[in-house]
From TrEMBL:
Assigned protein family: Belongs to the peptidase S26 family.
Domain Peptidase S26 positions: 9-176
Lineage: Bacteria, Bacillati, Bacillota, Bacilli, Bacillales
Superkingdom: Bacteria
Protein name (record): Signal peptidase I
Bilayer-crossing regions: 12-35
Length: 186
């Protein structure tokens, strides 16, 4: 009888440890997220399921073109691409991205660009100072984010700059559906 109680206690203890570890991993390290909407097409599709790395920005800073998840409101998280970093001036003219006056290639647009004619606008022209906040350069602790589907994205052009405190983490692993499983780079 004592062996049976000890075995039962061991199982309960193992389950509690497993739940505690799962909670810690989910709260502080990794979490699943589902893409909601077309704002990151063609890179991410509606209903793609991804893993968010919550600790990457605790040890490093965001890099240009990282795909991040951030709290857009208390109820909603958004997935967008980091375009502008602290200390930079960002502008888009004639579909070209300019960082501090220098054109920067957006290689993730290569596939999208080959299917359009040269007169079609992917990104309407904008300048950092005309976005909410009216900044001349991105302040420390903030980033400018855009969706890859620039004509159908609620991003920094509407929301303004995103504080690092709003960022949940970086994401680059699509794990579902299986035929779209991929590790995304720049």
């Amino acid at each position: 009888m004592a062996n049976r109680k000890s075995e039962w206690f061991d199982w309960v203890k193992a389950l509690l440890i497993a739940f505690a570890l799962a909670f810690i991993v989910r709260m502080f390290l990794f979490a699943p997220i589902v893409v909601d909407g077309p704002s990151m097409l063609p890179t991410l599709h509606d209903r793609d399921q991804m893993i968010v790395n919550k600790f990457s920005y605790r040890i490093s800073e965001p890099k240009r073109f990282d795909i991040v998840v951030f709290h857009a409101s208390a109820q909603k998280d958004f997935i967008k691409r980091v375009i502008g970093l602290p200390g930079e001036h960002i502008a888009v003219e004639d579909n070209a991205l300019y960082v501090d006056g220098n054109e920067v290639e957006q290689s993730f647009f290569n596939e999208q660009n080959k299917n359009i004619n040269s007169n079609q606008t992917l990104t309407s022209d904008f300048y950092l100072e005309y976005l909410p906040g009216g900044y001349k350069e991105i302040p420390e602790g903030q980033v400018l984010v855009l969706g890859d589907n620039r004509s159908n994205s609620t991003d920094s052009r509407i929301l303004g700059l995103i504080s690092m405190d709003q960022i949940v983490g970086k994401t680059n692993l699509v794990y579902w559906p299986l035929d779209r499983m991929q590790l995304l780079g720049e």
